[in-house]
Amino acid sequence: MSKAVHRRYVAFSDAHYAGNLVDGAYALKLFGDVGTNLAIEMDGHEGLFAGYSSVEFLAPVRGGDVVEAEAALVKKGNRSRTVDFELRVICRGSDDTGRAQVLDPPLVAVRARGTAVIPANGAE
Length: 124
Hints:
By secondary structure, this protein is of the alpha+beta class. It is built from 1 helix and 7 strands, in the order βββαββββ. The strands form 2 sheets. It has a 5-stranded antiparallel β-sheet with strand order 1-5-6-7-4, covered by helices on one side. A two-stranded antiparallel sheet has the order 2-3. A hairpin with a 3-residue loop joins strand 5 and strand 6. The two termini are 19 Å apart. The model has no long low-confidence stretch (mean pLDDT 93).
């Protein structure tokens, strides 16, 4: 199974809600980035995202977190690609002093499944 992984620090400026929460669209943007990475590595083309068949928001993402977004190929058709996505919080701030801790195991925050399409003239 092919996969791609990105890690990113979640800036406090990305938090828009009480409790320093980040909106769910933040995870979907990261899924777009890591899904594009996967498509380029597999097909030599960015591909076109067709849509999600499921999205589950399982735990909060907060400013100050370090997250890991993963895209994993589940099924490869002639031009379509079914991809599973997972966003994990791997580090979380402990308090307002800047202290943080590595989460072991990581906290699974969002899971999704989607379909991407490679244009007929772009696939090799």
